[in-house]
Design goal:
This protein is mainly alpha-helical. The chain is built from two helices and no strands. It has one domain.
């Protein structure tokens, strides 16, 4: 996946990794759920087994 040209554009996986690092106390799954919460109409992979939630 190639980021769009322009200042400040990052691929989605980079944004997710940065958010996971910045909000480390929340946990990776909580960050993923927050990012994907508004995507109910789009099939989003469910991630399991990464934390004890």
């Amino acid at each position: 996946m190639r980021p769009s040209s322009g200042c400040g554009s990052f691929p989605p996986r980079v944004v997710l990794l940065l958010a996971a690092a910045l909000f480390e106390e929340c946990g990776y799954l909580a960050v993923w759920r927050t990012f994907t919460a508004a995507l109910e109409a789009i099939p989003v992979p469910k991630i399991t087994g990464l934390d004890a939630e």
